[in-house]
From TrEMBL:
Source lineage: Bacteria, Pseudomonadati, Pseudomonadota, Gammaproteobacteria, Chromatiales
Protein name: Diguanylate cyclase/phosphodiesterase with PAS/PAC sensor(S)
Domain EAL: 19-263
Highest rank taxon of the organism: Bacteria
First-to-last residue of the parent protein present: 761 to 1023 of 1023
Length: 263
């Protein structure tokens, strides 16, 4: 097809078998509580912890830990992302409720990643409401991270769902900002609270003047729209200094802490 010839390669079959195998294992993990969450700190200007991002981990019994970059796409293609996403919201809300009981942790926020497949194919409003109600978690401490790919299809419907979630009290962060199909028009339509500068820009800050200019512009844009801005993938002091010079005062990255189990 498409003026191209493709030869069968035994690797293709091996790859497919691997996927089938992984999907089966993932299904079991989702239903038997075999997935765990790691938490990565999000810090303010003085390095004070403002909250955490929850990142999924799959400690596979035979293959060792499998990263979300591998299993989230499988979960999305097999619709396992729906029960997985519901489990994630419950776990996140439970954690927020626990933090709320202790004055030392009461103000912490928790960010969770929402897949665009989950957003479109689950009743996300019902799932979030249920998680909040069954745990008593404070809605305003929950941040949902969405990506620009969400807006590719049915932006009106997405916008309406986000408005309904906003009405519950939760906040939104636009993840991987600048890498996708950003249309600036969405920035004024969507009920966003935060832009998250993609780590590819942060990591090019030192070498590429263009990255520095882009980061500066994103921060200026966020400011003028009264949005918070957080930089992810901050690994060096130099990056932090550049970001601060541009007016970015929230950071996440190995410089402050890698994702780790809560304990
Ligand atoms: P993301 O949301 O952009 O998450 C940031 C990724 O950058 C994480 O990878 C994190 O471990 C990594 N990271 C954090 N700080 C640094 C740093 O300083 N340097 C570098 N090089 N990397 C850093 P991770 O945990 O492997 O997650 C990969 C992606 O998988 C996430 O990208 C997110 O899109 C997805 N994901 C993770 N957890 C979930 C989840 O619970 N639900 C959904 N739908 N997707 C998830
Ligand atoms: Ca994220
Ligand atoms: Ca990101």
């Amino acid at each position: 097809g498409r003026n191209a010839i493709c030869f069968f390669d035994p690797l293709m079959q091996a790859d497919m078998l691997r996927r089938v195998h992984l999907e089966r294992g993932l299904r079991r993990a989702v239903h038997d509580g075999g997935l765990t969450l790691h938490f990565q700190p999000q810090v303010g200007p003085d390095g004070d912890i403002l909250g955490y991002e929850a990142l999924l981990r799959w400690p596979h019994p035979e293959q060792g830990p499998i990263g979300p970059g591998v299993f989230i796409p499988i979960a999305e293609q097999s619709r396992l992302i729906i029960p997985l996403g519901r489990w994630l919201l419950q776990a996140a809300a439970r954690q927020l409720a626990a933090w709320a009981r202790d004055p030392a942790t009461r103000a912490l926020t928790l960010s969770v990643n929402i897949s665009s497949v989950q957003f479109r194919h689950d009743d996300l409003v019902a799932a979030v409401r249920e998680a909040l109600e069954t745990t008593g978690a404070p809605a305003e401490r929950l941040k949902l991270e969405v990506t620009e790919s969400l807006l590719m299809e049915e932006p009106d419907q997405v916008c309406a769902t986000m408005e309904r979630l906003r009405a519950l009290g939760v906040h939104f962060s636009l993840d991987d900002f600048g890498t996708g199909f950003s249309s600036l028009a969405y920035l004024q339509r969507l009920p966003l609270d935060e832009l998250k500068i993609d780590q590819s820009f942060v990591q090019s800050l030192e070498q590429a003047p263009a990255a520095d200019a882009i980061v500066g512009s994103i921060i200026g844009l966020a400011r003028s729209l009264s949005l918070h801005v957080i930089a992810e993938g901050v690994e060096t002091e130099t990056q932090r200094t550049r970001l601060a010079a541009h007016g970015c005062h929230r950071y996440q990255g190995y410089l402050f802490g890698a994702p780790a189990p809560l304990a």
